[in-house]
Amino acid sequence: MLNIENLNYRAGNFRLKNVCLEIAQGCCGALLGPTGSGKTLLLENIIGIRRPASGKIKINEADVTAMNPEQRNVSYVPQDICLFPHMTLIDNILYSARVRGVNVQAIKQEIDDLIDFLNISGLLKRYPDGLSGGERQRAALVRALAVKPNLLVLDEPFSSIDSALREETRRLLKDLLQKLKLTALIVTHDIDEAYFLGDIISIIIDGKIIQSGERDEIYNYPKKLEAAQFLGVRNIYDSGVTNVFEKSLVSSWGKERSVTISCGCAGSKFNEGLKIKWGIRPEAVFILKPGILLSADKKQNCFAAVIKKIYTRGKTHTLLCVLKGTDASSIEIDIHDAAFKKLELAAEKAIEISLNPDSIFIIS
Amino acid sequence: MDFKKIAIASAYSLFLFYFILIVSLFTVFDVSRFLELIKSERFLFSIKISMLTAFITTFISFSFALPAAYALSRCEFAGKRAVDLILELPLIVSPVALGALLLLFFNTSPGIFIQDNYISFVYEVAGIILAQFITSVGIATRLIKAGFDEISPRYEAVARTLGASGLQAFFTVSFPLAKKSIIAALILTFAKSIGEFGATVTLAGAMPMKTETLPIAIYLRLSNADIEGAAFYIFALLIMGFIVTYITRLLARTSNA
Description:
The structure holds 2 protein chains of 2 kinds.
Chain A: E1 2-11, E2 14-23, E3 28-32, H1 39-47, E4 54-59, E5 62-63, H2 69-72, E6 74-77, H3 89-100, H4 104-117, H5 133-145, E7 151-155, H6 163-180, E8 184-188, H7 191-197, E9 200-205, E10 208-214, H8 215-220, H9 225-230, E11 235-244, E12 248-253, E13 257-262, H10 266-269, E14 275-280, E15 285-287, E16 302-313, E17 316-323, E18 330-336, H11 337-342, E19 350-355, E20 361-363
Parallel strand pairs in A: 3-8, 3-9, 6-7, 7-8
Antiparallel strand pairs in A: 1-2, 1-4, 4-5, 9-10, 11-12, 11-14, 12-13, 14-20, 15-19, 16-17, 16-19, 17-18
Helix pairs in contact in A: 3-5
Chain B: H1 3-25, H2 31-38, H3 41-74, H4 80-86, H5 89-92, H6 95-105, H7 109-117, H8 125-149, H9 153-161, H10 166-177, H11 179-195, H12 198-203, H13 214-223, H14 227-256
């Protein structure tokens, strides 16, 4: 397992600030953040090529903060893969065993299993230069895992792979991590990648981990504005609490509307008049079929709107809508092509939208 | 005329310039003198002293340049910019001035102490080596540093995480990857040492059969108006230069393969 306690590090004007991170044994953590957020710097502290100014890094309960990289037993696959270009793949794979003085014959079976699993047995005598991004990535994984690391660290692992091969390699990595029950940390700016591979996701922005939690928690309930924005929540509103109930609250939306928001312990956490921000994902906004009759409880979060612009990306359409009323509040809706066609949506068309109270989250 | 044609014409004109210079050598070339000089003890001494001092200088320069280049490329340390700047000295200061600097140093108390108690440089063979060293080590360091700069430091980081110590990572990863620059630096140091004149003549003097390297032999022949002799030595120096260049290219090709 990996445990980072209050790690601080300074590089020029940039700082990692009180970073805390925990990945349980056998789990895969995804460190998600935009470019320049300090992901790679944190990773370099974990592998030991940088030393933190303060804080602790523990791997399998052992404090490794002051240890050299070679003493930590942490394998690292960098963004540019870095297979040694002057060695064949098999020499790359056996590098670790050779420099550690491990008898290659003793670990041969395990290495052969990895080579077979990652399907590179036909490439072993080749040099990295002539290989595809996917082949190099698989070879780098075998090299990293050849001597059973306590922690596997991957920095943007799929950035050098064609999109066609990316999904296949992602699945291969996920299967491999599950097979070996290995503790791993994947550093990425790709939200899909983090959701796909990470059991635990930590969002790092400007050198600070602003939220850490399980996949669903991070997806459904981003707690900070920066996290919500980074995770693609485009509908975020400033509002005030107008009514508080035991398990929900009512909040204003612009000057003329109010929305009901479900939250487990609303009564104990919120007061009337409290200023909050709430958000809803574009894909969580429903467009009601014209003429549909809704029961009274389902009508509570229904609003009339007009589609102003439509952007199409493959089989998904993004609708920019303005709500009916004098305050011109707007909302973005992502809708699949089939539903888009069925509802015969077009610019300037009037629609009715519904916000599920369970899909709305409050940003602290 | 388009730019490419102008560029090609420039390349040809440079070739022509040097070619004419080399051809002009043969206008004073005397075959009987050539045969006489090639067997002379003085010529053999010049070849021997030039090769010996160049080899020793290359070895010493490499011993300093390799770790220094690595430090400048990979490490952050106090005064790094000053070190980097001072290595440009051989590029911006003429070799005669560098030789004069050495001569002045050996007239100071620490210089006299070194000369009296350890090793004598002024007008000695050791002076040739020191003069060659001071004019070539900076360039060698720069060349090797450029080689290390081209290699991502992440290779070493990966090697370290795979269990290699700092030294193992250097010798198994960075060193072989920078091989081309290192070979180029070695050969350039050797070639520069063979051809070094200004600093050598200032510090070690121009003494026949003592500090008479090939360039000093040319200087001495010209001083005595022995044009055919000078041409012979220039020819010898050219042959050595071409051999060194050929070996450099051969090694570069091998390391690329």
